[in-house]
Write a structure and sequence with these properties.
479 residues, seven-stranded antiparallel sheet, 3 helices, 39% strand, globular
């Protein structure tokens, strides 16, 4: 065990982030002795597919809107060896469908070709680098590049024509930290705002990349310690960071726990608001009620307050990092920059996750949000408990829903605006849907103005798409 501990500290010292370090060590990890949930990612549609796939001239039920010309692609973990010691640690696999003039031209499933794909990390020679990560969470299109993101290291540039991997991308050597899987692009000037977190100082670094994709600012920020920061939020003039009670545990890491983060109810729970062009000392922290947040929906400014809408968990991983039983609910945080007062207001009583909006309103006042509905039983959720889709009217409080048949499982609904959009919700929601009766998946296209009407088209895929994380739309004008 002494060698293994030295190995962990060697990897962590590279500043790769705890998730990368843990994933590299996962093949020889010992399991935690705490009571945790069943390894759900090893059964059903969580199971990895066993090969890459390419298919053309896909069958379609219904009619694809002819204005949808481009690529929809989604990322997620797909362990090449068949399983891993934690849901988050599979190798990144991209699942994409190409649309052209009302036709689904092709579907491809391809691994992100990271340096550690198909390799035992203990057989790697030389120092491990920030490109040694799974790149398995999300994607972003910015500055003419499609990037696969993994949170724990550098992104990888992807060719949208065939989903092949071009190279690890470090902003011409300027990026010295990991990159979040949830960057935000200001729709008014094209500036991409993002961050990287680490288990050693600096625990958090804020970055800006201009519309051309050039990294123009990196600012280390002070936090109380190494906390897991999956997402953040952005308004017109501010960025908002969340330091929450899921924290890195060195004691778990030294026992080679595959994901050494723990729920610590005594840790700080707060949001920090920083003007985009300010110094680190200008961060204003707001204590908030104990919770965890994976995903924000949006944020904007209203008078003296910053408003943040997010999927809020009362707690997470109370029984260990395999414990995903807790439901999340959409909540609104109002942070008054003058008085320091925080108010937290539940938006709706439906458990939900994977919040999305029209990204043309990122950081601005908005009306409509979208997400997955989650089934709750006695206060807990099951792992395949997404039951359908929900549309929130943030002005009136009304919702629209579309519930799927029992056993049919939806994925994140991604909003694509209509070419000639005349309203905020004038567009389409794209989502992979797993059909257990055929053990295959479809890509659904829904009219976002009439979510309750269900899909206008279903692209039939020859294989299933395992449950994963986040997608991106790459219109033809961007390729």
């Amino acid at each position: 065990m002494a060698y293994d501990r030295r190995r962990f500290l060697q990897l962590a010292g590279l500043g790769l982030g705890a998730a990368t370090v843990s994933s590299l060590l996962g093949g020889c990890a010992t399991r935690s002795t705490t009571r945790e949930s069943p390894e759900f990612w090893k059964v059903g549609n969580f199971l990895p597919v066993d090969r890459e796939t390419a298919a053309t001239n896909l069958k379609v039920e219904g009619a694809i809107p002819p204005e949808l010309n481009g690529l929809y692609v989604r990322n997620g973990p797909n362990a090449w060896q068949g399983s891993t010691e934690h849901f988050f640690l599979g190798d990144g696999m991209l699942h994409g469908v190409r649309f052209e003039q009302g036709r689904a031209q092709w579907y491809r499933a391809r691994y992100v070709q990271t340096p550690i794909l198909y390799k035992n990390p203990f057989m790697l020679l030389g120092p491990l680098m920030p490109e040694h990560n799974m790149s398995n969470v999300s994607l972003i299109q910015h500055g003419g590049r499609l990037l696969s993101l993994g949170e724990a290291g550098w992104p990888f540039e992807i060719d949208p024509d065939d989903l092949s991997t071009r190279q690890a991308f470090d902003f011409d050597g300027k990026l010295k930290t990991a990159m979040t899987a949830h960057p935000k692009i200001d729709p008014h000037n094209g500036m991409m705002h993002f961050f990287g977190y680490n288990v050693f100082r600096p625990y958090l670094t804020y970055h800006q990349a201009d519309a051309r994709g050039e990294l123009v600012r990196s600012l280390p920020l002070e936090t109380s310690g190494p906390a897991m920061m999956h997402d953040f939020a952005m308004t017109e003039h501010h960025v908002i960071f969340m330091e929450l009670p899921v924290v890195f545990s060195m004691s778990k890491a030294l026992t080679l726990d595959p994901f050494p983060f723990v729920w610590d109810p005594n840790a700080v729970c707060r949001m920090g608001v920083l003007p985009k062009d300010a110094a680190a000392a200008d961060m204003q922290w707001f204590d908030i009620p104990t919770c965890f947040i994976f995903h924000t929906m949006n944020a904007y400014e209203e008078g003296d307050s910053v408003i943040v809408d997010a999927a809020r968990y009362d707690a997470l991983w109370v029984n260990g990092s395999r414990d995903f039983n807790h439901p999340a609910y959409l909540n609104r945080y109002a942070l008054n920059l003058k008085t320091g007062v925080v108010t937290v207001t539940p938006v709706d009583g439906q458990a939900m996750e994977f919040p999305q909006i029209n990204r043309g309103l990122w950081g601005r006042s908005y009306r409509y949000g979208y997400g997955l509905t989650i089934g709750v039983n006695d206060g807990q959720i099951n792992y395949d408990s997404a039951t359908g889709y929900i549309k929130f009217d943030m002005q009136t409080g009304a919702t629209q829903r579309y519930d799927l048949a029992r056993g049919v499982s939806p994925a994140e609904p991604y909003f694509v605006p209509a070419t000639d959009a005349s309203a905020e919700d004038h567009g389409y929601l794209l989502s992979y849907v797993y059909e257990p009766s055929t053990d295959s998946s479809d890509l659904w296209i829904m009219d976002a103005t009439q979510l309750s009407a269900g899909p206008v088209a279903r692209v039939k895929l020859p294989v299933r798409v395992p449950f994963g994380f986040h997608g991106e739309w790459v219109p033809d004008t961007e390729t």
